[in-house]
Design a protein that fits this description.
single chain; 495 residues; globular; 68% helix; 22 helices
Length: 495
Amino acid sequence: MAVLPDEQVSVPPANSPSPRLYNEDLAPVRHRNWGVYNIFAMWMQDIHSITVYTFAASLFFMGLNGIQVFIALAVSVVIIWGLMNLSGLAGQRTGVPFPVLARSSFGVWGANIPAMIRAGIAVIYYGILTYLGSTGLQIAALRMARPFTEPLTHHSFLGLHTLGWICFGAMWLIQLLVVRHGMDAIRRFQDWAGPAVWLVMFTLAIWMIVKSSGDVSFDLSPDQAHGWNLGYELIAAIALNVSFFATFLVNFADFGRLAPNARTVVRGNFFGLPVNFILFAMVAVTVTSASIVVFGEAITDPVKLIELTDSTPVILFGALVFTVATIGINIVADFISCAYDFSNLFPQRINFFRGGVIAAVLSVLPLPWHLYNNPESIAYFVGGLGAFLGPLFGVLMSDFWIIRRGHVDIDELFRSDPAGRYYFHRGFNPRALGAVGVATLVAAVLALVPAFAVWAPFSWAIGALLAAVVYLPLSWSSRADHDSEKTASTPRQGL
């Protein structure tokens, strides 16, 4: 039995696995050392970021008052908590990452389709967040050594000046150094990085409240919605927040597999999502509201606020912490998913780390600073998230929890011969692919066609529900074949 680089021990299937489907990173794990705090810290890494900060503050400009926004946040994060438990517990029961779990619903080869959709989105996000993290390094460099660094901002290449390229390259390398020892190194990194951002946020909130003399209001929207518009904006805010977590909803099995039991997943998600998210949103809105009084405008970028303090120690410390936070969310939300997804393509040649390196290289090609600074491209990209990820979630979860009643034959997930349980038709499940295709087409039209803009916030939910509604009747006739999986998979549940 081999010891993985991340100190998780893999368990080879009882039957000889196909080398085209198996490596130690994709195999079920036996030593599951992620406790409640580790999952909680992982969510701190994901939520304590510039993107979530800005998103939470932006909800107050949808025509909702403070109470209404907090209702929307509370309702949506409870929904997210429930959905995330479904995904995480599927990973915890099987011990396998998302692309391997997807083999049970999409087929042993068909699973590469949802894996590559998720990986493609993660690659784009990985580049954008690497760029965002590099801006913190730029601020620090200009503050500490302006005579030497400012000349580096006068010339640009492919839309980014020399200092920007240096800082982007530094962020790119730092992230690879963090993950070079696998998931256990990531666990140790996030256990202290997430709380560090809380320290900066609380300090920033106290400073802004003092500067504004306590003149803080949770009603930031200049135009209050009423009647039908109020109801629509409230429901849209709930849907948008659920969609905001669409990427994690698909592949949270990657983390749930490392928990020793179901209770750990549920409790870690509870403290990390409802408790942590609502508190972080309150701090973000408090700081944003105070910025209106102090600076005359609503500033939703915490790094810009820190820069406006005009205190070198504060600027350097704040820039460092938010850079660390960006590294954390990028690794957790994007690197890990890509690492498993690309490894699933060619298990014999691509392990966890090599899969992540491939993603890191590909992330540079779209020139992410151009994407981030182009509001139109960002709008279409974010809109497309729900359209593509909702249907995947709908098929995955309806197949695992309804059709298969929470059980799969784990050994069969690594079997590539035509007699295998999950081989379906030449390794692909046409029912799952058909349901995803129909739901994605509908959701994409709603998300991206301006004429259906009123439905755009609900594209993830519509895509997920429609995929499940189409898939379940198609698969129900073969449910009797799945009933035997409970017995086949039961001995593997304690891995």
